[in-house]
Write a structure and sequence with these properties.
By secondary structure, the protein is mainly alpha-helical. The protein folds into 3 domains: 7-135, no CATH class; 141-234; 250-433, hpI Integrase, Chain A (Orthogonal Bundle), CATH 1.10.443. The protein has 18 helices and 9 strands. It has helices at residues 7-18, 83-106, 115-126, 131-135, 141-150, 154-173, 188-199, 205-224, 250-257, 263-277, 283-287, 314-322, 332-335, 339-352, 377-389, 394-400, 408-412, 417-433; strands at 28-34, 44-52, 55-65, 70-71, 76-77, 296-300, 307-311, 356-359, 364-367. Helix 10 crosses helix 14 (339-352).
Length: 436
């Protein structure tokens, strides 16, 4: 009989509450010295017997004694060096099982259970080493989640791993065994509580929604494979919140591009310019570029794995030559551990660009940033916004950003790359030289 494993933790928290005094149990609990497989005179394992619904189940203990060391009338171990220890173990185990039975009676679950069901539930709650054997037959949410994430690309799998770690933290804080949760345990209330937990360190609703989309994808996959029919997302909706545009107006871009930055930040500003000139290329893609071929950089975008081709304009080539790498087109990975490390540094530098004042004997710097929220993503958003302001068709902008629909039409119709090249040239002419 299937027993929802989410009750395990609840049991431990509520046993004392439901342990009311009563002499009559629907299930009877007693002691039993199992001598069936021991030789004469050898110690035997003392077990707890659960009688219920005309069935019995035996729960083994760590106590081993001979028949002479058991007082059946007083129900205790005697004439043994470990008498106190064994009696504590036996009485404690018996009390735990009796409290479990009382809790099951209170929850009105015991009528439908067998003696073996009660034994399994007890061992899962109070004997963790036996937990794996008990829950092995049940497909848990964790098992399915990990298997599903293993089918993803490395970059996508990393996102699923972050969600997995957050769920572990959430369950640990609430003393819940995440490994025991079934799909039916991930209810709307569970999701709402998880959202509240995430909001402490992630106030952005859209950022939290990434975790819920990952969880929902696992549910959809499990439903497709007929693992479950349970679906909490019918009532728990994932709604994005409109975000402030992450782009600079053309006047702001000109101010930024021509700002007399400190020497230590000049390289970061130049790379930001380069990203803009390469149609908002992402840091990871820029860092991994190897060469310019026939005046273009061709690469598979890390995020979408789609082939991408950008014409290198003279202004972009000038910056590339200035920061040429040993093994890469630009020297990002020659100087930094990885693209993430570089992204952290460039974003910090961009946020400091603006008037700087010094004070005190040490000349402490005080920054008055022009754009305190700027990041490398702004290059991409700004390019798209400015392209739209120049009445460049949406289809051209979409293809320039790699946002094709990947439909059958996209596959069979080779979009005219010249349109993208012309669009980029128009954007650069307008931003750099004021020419429309």
């Amino acid at each position: 009989m299937h027993i929802c494993t989410h009750m395990y933790t609840q049991i431990g928290q509520n046993l004392l509450i439901f342990a009311v005094a009563t002499a009559i149990f629907m299930a009877n609990i007693s002691f039993y010295l199992d001598t069936r497989r021991t030789k004469n005179g050898a110690p035997s394992v003392m077990k707890i017997v659960i009688y219920h619904n005309r069935e019995r189940a035996l729960v083994s203990t760590s106590c081993k004694i001979t028949p002479e060391q058991w007082d059946d009338e007083k129900k205790q171990v005697i004439n043994c060096d470990d008498s106190v220890k064994f009696n504590t173990i036996l009485q404690g185990t018996k009390n735990q099982i009796e409290s479990l039975v009382r809790w099951l009676e209170y929850e009105k679950k015991i009528d439908q259970m067998s003696a073996n069901d009660i034994k399994n539930m007890f061992e899962a709650q109070f004997e963790p080493e036996k937990r794996a054997r008990i829950t092995k037959k049940v497909i848990t949410f964790e098992d399915r989640y990990l298997k599903f994430s293993d089918t993803k690309t490395p970059s996508t799998k990393r996102l699923y791993t972050v969600t997995y770690n957050r769920m572990l933290e959430f369950c640990k804080e609430r003393n819940i065994r995440f490994s025991s949760l079934t799909f039916e345990d991930i209810t709307r209330d569970w999701l709402a509580s998880f959202d509240l937990f995430l909001s402490v360190h992630s106030p952005s609703k859209n950022a939290r929604n990434i975790h819920f989309r990952n969880i929902r994808a696992v549910f959809n996959d499990a439903i497709d494979d007929e693992i479950t029919t349970f679906y909490p997302f019918r009532k728990f909706k994932i709604r994005n919140v409109a975000t402030r545009k992450r782009n600079l107006k053309v006047e702001d871009l000109r101010t930024l591009f021509n700002y007399p930055v400190e020497k230590c930040n000049k390289g970061y500003l130049d790379i930001f310019k380069l990203m803009f000139m390469l149609i908002g290329i992402n840091t990871v893609d820029l860092a991994n570029l190897k060469e310019i071929k026939d005046g273009r950089v061709d690469f598979y975008r890390a995020k979408t794995h789609r082939l991408y081709s950008i014409k290198v304009e003279p202004e972009a080539l000038e910056i590339i030559e200035r920061y040429k790498g040993k093994d890469w087109l630009v020297d990002i990975l020659d100087r930094y551990k990885d693209h993430k490390d570089y992204t952290k540094h460039i974003n910090m530098a961009l946020k400091k660009i603006g008037p700087v004042t010094r004070s005190g004997l040490g000349g402490k710097k005080t920054f008055d940033p022009l754009f305190p929220d700027i990041s490398t993503y702004w290059a991409r958003h700004s390019w798209a916004t400015i392209a739209a302001s120049l009445d460049i068709p949406k289809d051209t902008i979409a293809h320039a950003l790699g946002h094709g629909n990947n439909t059958i039409t996209d596959i069979y119709i080779d979009f005219d790359q010249n349109k993208v090249d012309e669009a980029n040239r128009r954007v650069l002419d307008w931003v750099l030289y004021g020419k429309k």
